[in-house]
Amino acid sequence: MRAIPGVARAYILLTAVCAAACAGPALRPGTPWWTVALLAALYAICELPVRRRLLGRVLGGAAPVMTGAFFPVLLAAAFLLPPAAAALVAVPGALLGRVERRPKGARRLWRAAQLSVATWAGKNGPGMTRAPPPRTPLRSAEAATAPRRPTSRTSCCPRPPPR
């Protein structure tokens, strides 16, 4: 990291610390580790043809040139997992991804931290957590056309006034 200016080095390390803080709560019990492992492995496997040109040729030569073609896996992690677990999904693929220029270690660390924080933020964005389902026109129409059941005798048939 000597070729990187000091401010950029500090920014990379601060982003890595933020990524570790985002992923830290995943160590608590209740994290769906099988789902995390499956999505992380899928993202890492999808990044391998990008890194290995020979593997890209074996798979038909259709390997993408740039990384980031598999962000839908991270989006699926943001929808399916808790925020801290979703932040962990990006790390293996980002560390295995192809880096064009030196210093490769710093660039991989930056990419892993950046994607981890972005996936965590995507999960914590507005409307992603603890929000009630929106009232769509379809649900309103279903509620309007549903047969109503009387809750008591007075709501169905009011008694005639006494004489």
Structure description:
There is one protein chain. Helix content is 61%, strand content 0%. By secondary structure, the protein is mostly helical. It is elongated. The termini are far apart.
Q: Helix and strand layout, with pairings?
A:
Elements: H1 6-23, H2 33-51, H3 53-58, H4 71-80, H5 83-96, H6 104-123, H7 137-145, H8 153-156
Short description:
The chain has 163 residues and is mostly helical. It has helices at residues 6-23, 33-51, 53-58, 71-80, 83-96, 104-123, 137-145, 153-156. Helix 2 (33-51) runs antiparallel to helix 4, helix 2 (33-51) packs parallel to helix 5 and helix 5 packs antiparallel against helix 6.
Low-confidence stretches: none
Distance between the first and last residues' Cα: 96 Å
The sequence of SSEs as H and E is HHHHHHHH
**What is the domain tally?**
1
Kindly estimate the percentage of residues that lie in beta strands according to DSSP.
under 5%
* Tertiary shape: elongated
What profile does the largest beta sheet have? none
Computed Rg: 25 Å
The amount of helix comes to 55-70%
Mean of pLDDT: 78
Discrete helix count: 8
Number of strands: 0
Computed structural class: mainly alpha
Keywords:
mainly alpha; 8 helices; membrane; transmembrane
